[in-house]
Amino acid sequence: MDNKFPGKDITIEDLKSKFPLVAKKNKNHRSTFNVSGVEFGKDLVIFAGPNMVESKELIFDVAKNVKKIGAHFLRGGAFKPLTFPYRSKKYRETREDGIRWLSEAKEKYNIPIITEIMEEKYIPLVAEMTDIIQIGSRNMQNYPLITACAKTKKPIMLKRHYGASLRDWLGAAEYILVEGNKKVILCERGVSVPHTHRSTSRFLLDLQVIPAAKEVTHLPIVSDPSHATFWRPWVRPMALASVAAGADGIMLEVHPDPKNAAVDPLQPINYKDFRSLLPEMIKIYNNI
Ligand code: PEP
Ligand code: MN
């Protein structure tokens, strides 16, 4: 079969018949769209916040600080796909309360929000409150969930499953576009390769997928170095490398007291580090 993209599993035929809506119409085709006043595909879009909406106090403090520093979106999970089922009080998902606190923080500090959804039954609640619905990596191929979210017409961030090819990922994105929902953001968050499975490096940030995606799709692509590296000292270099690779946005875990974060305390950066990283990323973005 004719394959203009050597070394990849995406063919010209795929662009025509498997994901025609996701595929670029021509070389310069890029999606640009506005979400709550933020221009995707034009500016470097920054998502910052804790892994989990641990409490009202925490999310208000983070909203206030990341907004002041320059984040465009406040992130935080109220429904969390935690790897192990055992929960101490500290790890308790805040669920409906968490969604409400996020939405109160949004109003109080004038910052739009993004949060993950895992179950269809919460779609009405989450769609009403959030500016962007996040489909987590574990649900990348949960087609009924994706389709139901797409039907709300809310912007959707589709995180790449750590075992998925670009082809599979774009196939999942097509499920959103085919519902008439055009506001789709891809998010690379690290892939699984055997030798990265150590306590300090669970995933490998696939920087190459950023230019690879841009060859075939018009959708904006965001990079999440926090989940990929799982290790605070590597977040800054990988964030900068992602921007250099062409990322349209960066998602960062930011926590006022990273060591005491309820979930994944090795990966968030603090306010001070976020403050110094932001202009560094913008400088690279403006120079590529
Ligand atoms: C998250 O962003 O909180 C998250 C759980 O990410 P991922 O789905 O990429 O693991
Ligand atoms: Mn996480």
List the keywords.
8-stranded parallel β-barrel, TIM Barrel, 10 helices, 14% strand, two-stranded antiparallel sheet, binds manganese (II) ion, binds phosphoenolpyruvate, 288 residues, single chain, alpha/beta
Please, could you describe this protein's structure?
- There is one protein chain.
- With 288 residues, the protein is of the alpha/beta class.
- It has one domain (12-82, 90-285): TIM Barrel.
- It is 36% helix and 14% strand.
- It is built from 10 helices and 10 strands.
- The strands form 2 sheets. An 8-stranded parallel barrel has the order 3-4-5-6-7-8-9-10, surrounded by 7 helices. Strands 1-2 form a two-stranded antiparallel sheet.
- It is globular and about 50 Å long.
- It starts with 11 loop residues before the first helix and ends with a helix.
- The relative contact order is 0.15.
- The mean pLDDT is 94.
- Bound molecules: phosphoenolpyruvate (PEP) and manganese (II) ion.
- Phosphoenolpyruvate binds next to loops.
How many separate structural domains?
1
One letter per element, helices H and strands E, the order comes to: HEEEHEHEHEHEHEHEHHEH
Bound molecules: phosphoenolpyruvate, manganese (II) ion
Please name the CATH architecture: Alpha-Beta Barrel
Low-confidence blocks of residues: none
Strand order of the largest sheet: 3-4-5-6-7-8-9-10
CATH class: Alpha Beta
**Which geometry do the CA atoms define?**
globular
Write the CATH homologous superfamily. Answer: Aldolase class I
List the helices and strands and how they pair.
Elements: H1 12-17, E1 33-35, E2 38-40, E3 45-49, H2 56-69, E4 73-75, H3 95-109, E5 113-117, H4 123-129, E6 132-135, H5 143-151, E7 156-159, H6 166-177, E8 184-188, H7 209-216, E9 221-223, H8 225-229, H9 235-245, E10 249-253, H10 271-287
Helix pairs in contact: 2-3, 5-6, 9-10
Bound molecules: phosphoenolpyruvate (PEP) and manganese (II) ion.
